[in-house]
Design a protein that fits this description.
heterodimer; A: mainly alpha
């Protein structure tokens, strides 16, 4: 296909951001700015819908590829393309960004123009990560994502935002530079940055282990896995609602996507060698962070810790190295992207009205905000993994695939499911039921805009839960390629 | 018989000096115009006929290209610098035509230094350069700090010149020659002599642990002089260091090789360690330059990947960034004078779009974060060092750049997140503004389309 749809996907938000930045801000109202941002991102979403429509599921390899030489001298090229693994994540991104803008309509009052610009840039960089099939541009986009996110948390975050945003930036950067070294080494060996070529290349076993660890450092921080997860609660708590949504919804998936796209095909030997380590770390993550989440007083922090636990399922699923495991992990990624984004929006709704995130400040919300409680329940149950919601399918597949590896692993993941149910139900109970506190009596129920985006998210959750084949059709073939 | 033909660039500058001396007495403004035009002509001459000057010599094509390219960079840099210098000098009441003369002498020294293959000529070039720099540091005679900077720079610089001379005499004692190409088989004495020469050069490029003068001199000198120290003479000394490393085949001598690697590692670490806690902009830039010197030494040592290309790519990007940052700093003033503290940058985002965004570009580029050209500068240095097997140094380098990202981010935080506390004056320095905006654009463009620069450095050095 000659139509450069992927470049268009990357460029549309950038062009939008440039146009916005050139317009003089004094004359524009905040609402106009947000509306123009919404138009751009909605257009982008519609554009990205072309991908699954025209994607040929029967073929192997990348489609819609575009190839431009970037450097004459080195084999570093602008080489983009998509396969089944990247398309759902691109759709998730383009779907969540308009929602992020919608939910900030009222909460972001100062410097609205910059806010929209950073979000547009963020969107295009994230899409860039998912479409690149050359290591160097992959790294470039992977790293560039940090800049707008740094500014979003730093400018519109909570009271302790500087600490959070520095921690976020430096943690991620420290992991990434090790990956950069590994990338440089690989390119100097293979003489090319093309992912397909590198997958065919076999490294020395000792070196492969080191390279794997370098990539692991970067992705483990992004996912985040157990000892590297401490930036996440800070970043989530301090970020504005929209920042948390995009962070939980998409940025965490970059790490898992990196594991599937790069680590597995590049380092077959090392992936098997380090399997026990990753299982151990993920089990610790699931059990430990679930217990930590149980004792949180802050709603956002609780959901942040639950994210770490849920991403533990993803890493376990990926490193079972079976088709079912990775399918499940991938499904869990998408599902978590929708559900945790929705949960952060849920927190954002009450925070915007009541200006506190403490669980103890809420009680009996269901009396004044019945529609809110209804949506809260859907997403809470989906996060717990109730059959019929998207959370169930991923968890089920991952647990099923662990049996083939070790029963103990199954045991720990199952414990994670139980703990997950307990803290989510506890959260729901404490916030929604009980006596109606006097100071929340005047809270208004969901506005039409909020109902609109919550129903979109709820619809998607149910759709994926009831008809998961929709997603599996897309990813099956590509995933089977990556574990061979 | 001396071949005057290859001295044409130097003679040209000497002529410029004489013209400036004569006319400067009559009209200061004219000396800036004359020198801008003069260096412009020199650049054109070098671009068109540069190679012809050296054709009659028995130098290799690589070396000739090295000479010509470095001299072109130096003379373009001089144009930018001279254009930039007028307004800040006027603001500080330092607008005297001698300043231009110092620049000319320093550039002349740098030219001599770059193309000398004889230790004595190199010494003369280095001294010519350094003496002008001492004077430039102390140029603000009414200011105590400036005087202090001048004295410090002079006394320590004199010490390092002593090292250099001592080293040269040891080499002469051992081999009976001042020519670099005559040094082939080393004895212990000439190794010691050469290490003394290296120490002196490390001092000039302010590589740790010979960097102690840098923060003080950077802070005390007038900002415009700081820009000069940070850019052109350092560039020339670095090129000479590179030549010493290449021509004397230091990579083959174990002991000197160790010195190089250790200095590189220490520079990388001391630079970031020192910069973290700084509160003064120029001190922070001093330490950050030490960190970057570490990267450049890594580039000098790694030869296989793109030969001189990696080093030159890094140097060009670094020079552009340095000029850009200082052009912004020189444009920032309060009623009391120039900006000195980092906290004075608070809220720059709200007072000036162009300055804050240019600074964002420059600092992210220094930190090596895409999408800015600094990323590829670091990327190529690391590619080269990994190709040559310097794994440990590469790891030190990337980790140091993570720490470096912290203090660059702090500056960006101050500009973008904090509220402004002071009223900056609108300086309306058109030339400065044009320079930093265009350099910011160049830094961004070189990321997306680096081919011209890469092809240039690549075609010159085969």
């Amino acid at each position: 296909m000659s139509f450069p749809i992927l470049s268009l996907l990357i460029l549309t938000p950038i062009i939008g951001a440039l146009t916005l930045s050139l317009s003089s801000s004094a004359q524009l109202k905040n609402k106009t700015i947000f509306l123009s941002g919404l138009w751009i991102t909605t257009g982008e979403f519609l554009l990205s819908l072309l991908l699954p429509i025209f994607y040929d599921k029967t073929k192997n390899g990348y489609q819609f590829t575009e190839y431009h030489t970037w450097f004459d001298k080195f084999d570093i090229n602008y080489y983009v393309g998509v396969d089944g693994v990247s398309i759902p994540l691109i759709l998730l991104t383009t779907f969540l960004v308009p929602i992020c803008l919608l939910c900030s309509l009222n909460s972001i009052q100062n410097r609205a123009k910059e806010f929209v610009i950073y979000f547009l840039l963020l969107e295009s960089f994230i899409i860039g990560v998912f479409v690149s099939i050359d290591l160097v541009i992959f790294y470039v986009f992977f790293e560039a994502v940090l800049i707008p996110m740094f500014l979003i948390i730093g400018i519109w975050g909570g009271e302790n935002r500087l600490y959070a945003t520095f921690k976020f930036f430096l943690y991620t950067l420290a992991g990434s530079v090790l990956m950069l070294l590994a990338i440089i080494y690989i390119i100097s060996k293979v003489k090319s940055g093309n992912i397909e070529l590198i997958s065919d290349f076999t490294f020395d076993q000792q070196i492969e282990l080191i390279l794997f660890l370098c990539f692991f450092a970067s992705f483990a921080v992004k996912v985040p896995m157990f000892p590297f997860h401490t930036w996440l609660p800070d970043a989530h708590v301090q970020a504005p609602t929209s920042g948390s949504v995009i962070l939980a919804g998409v940025l965490l998936k970059l790490g898992a996507y990196g594991f599937i796209r790069l680590s597995l095909p590049f380092f077959e030997y090392a992936s098997i060698y380090f399997q026990p380590m990753i299982f151990a770390l993920s089990c610790v993550a699931i059990v430990y962070t679930s217990i930590v989440a149980l004792r949180q007083l802050d709603m956002k922090k609780m959901i942040a810790y639950s994210s770490v636990a849920h991403m533990g399922f993803v890493t376990i699923g990926i490193f079972t190295l079976t088709q079912d495991g990775i399918n499940g992990a991938y499904f869990q990624m998408i599902s978590h992207g929708i559900v945790s984004a929705a949960l952060f929006l849920i927190v954002g709704v009450v925070y915007e009205r009541h200006h506190t995130r403490m669980i103890s400040d809420y009680s009996g919300v269901t009396n004044v905000m019945p529609k809110y409680s209804f949506f809260f329940m859907i997403f809470m149950l989906s996060s717990v993994g109730l059959p019929g919601t998207s959370g169930f399918v991923g968890e089920f597949l991952v647990i099923m695939s662990t049996i083939s590896v070790s029963v103990y692993l199954t045991f720990f993941t199952a414990i994670g499911v139980i703990l997950g149910a307990s803290y989510m139900l506890l959260l729901y109970k404490n916030v929604n039921f009980g006596d109606l506190k006097s100071d929340i009596k005047q809270l208004a129920d969901l506005s039409n805009i909020e109902i609109f985006y919550f129903s979109c998210l709820a619809f998607l959750t149910m759709l994926l839960g009831i008809y998961p084949k929709l997603l599996f059709e897309m990813i099956n073939k590509s995933i089977s390629m990556s574990i061979l | 018989m001396i071949n005057f033909y290859q001295l044409i660039p130097e003679i040209f500058i000497l002529a410029l000096i004489l013209i400036t001396l004569c006319f400067g007495l009559l009209n200061k403004d004219r000396s800036i115009a004359i020198n801008t035009i003069g260096f412009f002509i020199l650049t054109l001459i070098l671009i068109n006929f540069g190679k012809d000057f050296y054709i009659s010599t028995d130098l290799s094509l690589n070396t000739i290209n090295l000479f010509v390219l470095s001299k072109i960079i130096l003379s373009i840099g001089s144009i930018v610098f001279i254009l930039l210098s007028k307004r800040p000098l006027k603001n500080e009441n330092l607008y005297r035509y001698e300043y231009i003369l110092f620049i000319l002498f320093a550039i002349l020294g740098s030219f001599v230094l770059i193309s000398s293959d004889n230790f004595l000529t190199a010494f003369i070039g280095l001294e010519l350069q350094s003496l002008s720099l001492y004077l430039m540091a102390a140029f603000n005679t009414k200011n105590l700090k400036s005087n202090e900077a001048g004295i410090k720079y002079f006394s320590l610089g004199a010490l390092s010149s002593g090292f250099l001379l001592f080293g040269i005499s040891m080499i002469y004692y051992d081999t009976g020659s001042f020519y670099m190409q005559n040094l082939n088989n080393f004895t212990t004495i000439s190794e010691i002599g050469l290490s003394l020469v290296l120490i002196s050069l490390f001092f000039k490029v302010s590589a740790a642990p010979f960097h102690i003068w840098t923060p003080d001199v950077y802070e005390g000198s007038p900002t415009i002089s700081t820009l000069f120290f940070a850019s052109l003479p350092k560039f020339a000394s670095l090129i000479f260091l590179f030549r010493v490393y290449q021509d004397l085949n230091i990579s083959g001598i174990q002991s000197l090789n160790y010195i190089f690697q250790i200095v590189c590692a220490i520079s990388l670490l001391v630079g970031v360690y020192g910069a973290i806690t700084q509160k003064v902009i120029k001190r922070l830039l001093a330490f950050s330059s030490i960190n970057h010197i570490g990267f450049m030494l890594l580039g000098i040592m790694s030869y296989q990947f793109m030969s001189e290309g990696t080093l030159f790519f890094y140097l060009i990007i670094y020079l552009i960034t340095t000029f850009g940052i200082f052009a912004v700093l020189l444009n920032l003033r309060t009623v009391e004078g120039e900006f000195t503290k980092i906290s004075q940058l608070n809220g720059l985002r709200f007072t000036s779009n162009s300055k804050s965004i240019s600074m964002l570009v420059f600092f992210f580029s220094l930190a090596g974060i895409p999408p800015f050209a600094g990323f590829f500068a670091k990327f190529f240095i690391l590619s080269a060092s990994i190709t040559d097997g310097f794994f440990f140094l590469s790891i030190v380098a990337v980790l140091s750049s993570v720490i470096a990202a912290f203090y660059y981010l702090t500056i960006i935080k101050n500009m973008f997140f904090n509220k402004s506390e002071i009223e900056p004056l609108d300086d309306n320095n058109k030339i400065g503004k044009v320079i930093f905006i265009s350099f910011g654009l160049i830094i961004t463009l070189f990321f997306f389309y680096p081919d011209p620069l890469i092809n240039l450095v690549d075609s010159l050095f085969k």
